[in-house]
Amino acid sequence: MSSEVRLFIDGAEFRVPAGISVAAALRHAGYEATRRAFDASPRAAFCGMGVCFECRVRIDGSERLGCLERVTDDMDIRCDA
Amino acid sequence: MKTDVLIIGGGIVGCAIAERLAREGIAACLVERDVVGGAATAASMGHLVVLDDDPEELSLSAYSCARWNELAASLPAAAEYRRIGTLWIARTEAELAEAERKRERLVAAGIAAERVSAAQLQVLEPALAATLVGGLRVPADAAIYPPVAAMWLAQRAIDAGARLRCGVAVEAIGDREVLLSDRSRIGARHIVVANGCAAPALLRGVPVRRRKGHLLITTRMQPAVHHQLIELGYMQSAHGTNTESVAFNVQPRATGQLLLGSTRQFDDHASEVTPRLLQRLVARATEYLPGLTQMTALRAWAGFRPATPDHRPLIGPWPSCDGVWLACGHEGLGVTTALGTADLLAAQLLGQELPFDAAPYAPARFAASSEHCHVV
């Protein structure tokens, strides 16, 4: 098993440690805000355990919680949720 | 400690009454056992809607919606008052005929309402299923965020001289006084029971039953929904006496999120969400908004509506109990009718001219069940 996976965030390629959550991968890639509230204020993972719903991202086209999803090779993550 | 009028319950109805009385210069004291604008007020949808199925419901809701509209410019932005209008939706020709009867009743009462064809429905709300046959648009209906509206009314009451006691419950009503959970007493010439579902615990025989409801909020919906959307079969659900019913009732929030309702249950007293009812609610909503299958549900919650046997609130003196007044039992219409309730109750209590006929809401209509009174 490779110790890294390759994935795409808003179209840009990143390599992140295998086995981490999408929320962690976003931090690893330098993202602080992973979506915007309707008033354009930044949002990112807060509770880290699937309760607050603040870390919503679009993964391979579907809205998901970044903290509950593990990274996989060639995953397409969009910060427009 | 003495006061002119003591109001039990800081939901939106109690807050509206405190505000109304304080503005009249009455020494009012509002007692809330938990937080202002909690319980049923916080669990509710905040749809300010004119309902016409019963002429009495029509006068109370139409009067109250007009009062909310007068206040709209003074409300804080966080109260999210928005004139989104209601779109009543027909699935069948029979429901379309009901839409026409509804239009006639509303227009006769001075409320603008217009028929909407199937094609117009798709233009107004592209997210709706193409199989729907038409509907009725009531443009003046609005939506509000009830907890903030309640807190704003309470603050206006305080600014006008009212007192607010939070975190202490009224344990019993005595002769011109109440006993609080901290063992203190407050004397009052008048006591207004505005604590919704909790009213029967203080006054035996008040015919209020808890009717559970569920709401669910989604993430932002595309395409956007613009009106409050309700199926024309809604009143059968609301006014029926079935132990359990579900009707399509959806509100777009200012954020673009959707608030999905509605369920009604008499025999479920658990405050938790009942998954089976939530499933039925989502299934019903998806029949009207097929795009919901792609949506994420953010949260769901349940609350209890204070229901009376004839679906009309109890507003006025409680017979055989001098100085005790009721303002409870609004079922699912307490946010809409809070201001009309406050005006009607205040006018009765102060001996002023009534804004509209009080008889249909008089608690005395259930007098046979109200023999018992002071229990302190």
Task: Provide the fold topology.
The complex is a heterodimer of chains A (81) and B (376).
Chain A: E1 4-9, E2 12-17, H1 22-28, E3 35-36, E4 42-43, E5 56-59, E6 62-65, E7 75-78
Chain B: E1 2-8, H1 12-23, E2 28-32, H2 39-43, E3 47-48, H3 55-71, E4 86-90, H4 93-108, E5 114-117, H5 118-124, E6 134-138, E7 142-143, H6 146-159, E8 163-166, E9 170-174, E10 177-180, E11 185-193, H7 199-202, E12 209-220, E13 228-231, H8 234-239, E14 244-252, E15 257-265, H9 275-288, E16 297-307, E17 314-317, E18 324-328, H10 334-350
Helix pairs in contact in B: 1-6, 1-10, 3-10
What class would the helix/strand composition of chain B place it in?
A: alpha/beta
Listing every helix as H and every strand as E from the N terminus to the C terminus, the arrangement of chain A reads EEHEEEEE
Largest sheet of chain B: 8 strands, mixed
User: How many separate helices of chain A?
Assistant: 1
The fourth-level CATH homologous superfamily of the largest domain in chain B is FAD/NAD(P)-binding domain
Highest-level CATH class of the largest domain in chain B: Alpha Beta
Share of β-strand residues of chain B:
25-35%
Regions with little confidence, pLDDT below 50 for 5+ residues of chain B: none
Could you name the CATH topology of chain A?
Answer: Ubiquitin-like (UB roll)
According to DSSP, the number of beta strands of chain B is 18
What does this structure look like?
The complex is a heterodimer of chains A (81) and B (376). Chain A has 81 residues and is mainly beta. Chain A has 1 helix and 7 strands, in the order ββαβββββ. In chain A, the strands form 2 sheets. Chain A has a 5-stranded mixed beta sheet with strand order 2-1-7-5-6, with helices on one face. Chain A has a two-stranded antiparallel ribbon with strand order 3-4. In chain A, β1 and β2 form a beta hairpin. Chain B folds into 2 domains: 165 residues, 3-Layer(bba) Sandwich (FAD/NAD(P)-binding domain); 153 residues, 2-Layer Sandwich (D-Amino Acid Oxidase, Chain A, domain 2), CATH 3.30.9.10. In chain B, 30% of the residues lie in helices and 28% in strands. Chain B is built from 10 helices and 18 strands. In chain B, strands 1, 2, 8, 9, 10, 11, 17 and 18 form an 8-stranded mixed beta sheet that branches. Chain B starts with a strand and ends in a 26-residue tail after the last helix. The model of chain B has no long low-confidence stretch (mean pLDDT 94). Chains A and B meet through loops of A and loops of B.
